[in-house]
Design goal:
This protein is 32% helix and 26% strand. It is built from seven helices and 15 strands. Its cofactor is Fe(2+).
């Protein structure tokens, strides 16, 4: 088992709950030091973080960036999208949740952790950091198109997890007004890790009396678009054809070659093999896009 996965799940087998049910892990060495409030203060005060890596949100939606991103002047021209630390802290103190997006893009310890987890799970992994004021809910009930490991760093959060998505696969991520029956209601304490399977509707409320911070590690899964794209690539991979055959006979010959190649590929391919190739591609994409 990879170090990253072990720090999330401890000695509990992930296979027992993967895609089946939500679960709380209590690892001996949780990754609570990957990104701390001290680190966050340093990032904010550096004045280098830009939108859309930072958002302020409530259950009603996203706060207008104009409220916390005053324009700067560089070489006589206005530049937008740089959050002002004092404005961000003021809104966060006024019951707005601070959401840092794709921490894996810009914070080295999180980048390395996500890369290890992506290799272990053979999928793309992204990281999001939430700072939620006491007694507030940052997002409405929603479904994620990813499996989520929520690492509680400070404070505590009450989670409400409902049913998974429709079994026929016809569903959309994000907000939902039909979450289904409640499957799990639990308080996540600092050092614990909550696993939420892909598509399970959920919401979370910070416990009263303390600011909650948690790191969400989202494990992206393939969809039919990924399968189609990779199959299309495999059907032409290694086949060299002239871009503009000169005669009808040449064009027919090119069509025959293309079909022969496709038949050979399909004869050696089945569903599990195609999905395995997609997962390999997703893990490789994670590595090259960090």
């Amino acid at each position: 088992m990879s170090d990253a996965l072990h720090r999330l799940t401890g000695d509990d087998p992930l296979d027992a709950v993967w895609r089946k049910e939500p679960h709380i892990f209590r690892p001996a060495n949780p990754p609570t030091s990957l990104l701390t409030l001290t680190d966050l203060d340093a990032v904010l005060d550096s004045r280098l973080l830009r939108l859309p890596y930072l958002e302020l949100v409530t259950t009603e939606g996203t706060v207008d960036p104009a409220r916390f991103c005053p324009p700067r002047t560089i070489q006589g021209r206005p530049v937008h999208g740089y959050p002002d630390a004092a404005a961000v802290r003021s809104l966060a103190a006024d019951r707005h949740t601070l959401l840092l997006r794709n921490v894996d893009h810009w914070h080295a310890p999180v980048t390395a952790f996500c890369a290890d987890l992506a290799t272990a799970l053979r999928r793309k992994v992204e990281a999001f950091f939430f700072v939620t004021p006491p007694g507030t809910q940052g997002r409405p009930v929603h479904r994620d198109d990813a499996d989520v490991f929520a690492v509680q760093i400070t404070g505590a959060k009450d989670w409400y997890i409902h049913d998974g998505p429709p079994a026929d696969g016809h569903w959309n991520p994000d907000r939902t007004d039909s979450p289904g029956p409640l499957r799990l209601s639990t308080r996540l304490e600092a050092g614990q890790v909550l696993y939420v399977p892909r598509g399970f509707a959920h919401r979370a409320v910070a416990a009263e009396g303390t600011v909650s911070t948690h790191l969400s590690l989202t494990v992206r899964e393939a969809g039919t678009t990924h399968l189609r794209a990779l199959l299309s690539s495999l059907l032409t991979e290694g086949l060299s054809l002239p871009p503009r055959p000169g005669t009808d006979a040449d064009l027919t010959d090119a069509a025959d070659q293309l079909l022969d190649h496709a038949r050979k590929v399909l004869s050696e391919l089945d569903g599990p093999a195609l999905l395995d190739a997609v997962h390999t591609s997703m893990a490789a994409t994670h590595t090259t896009t960090q």
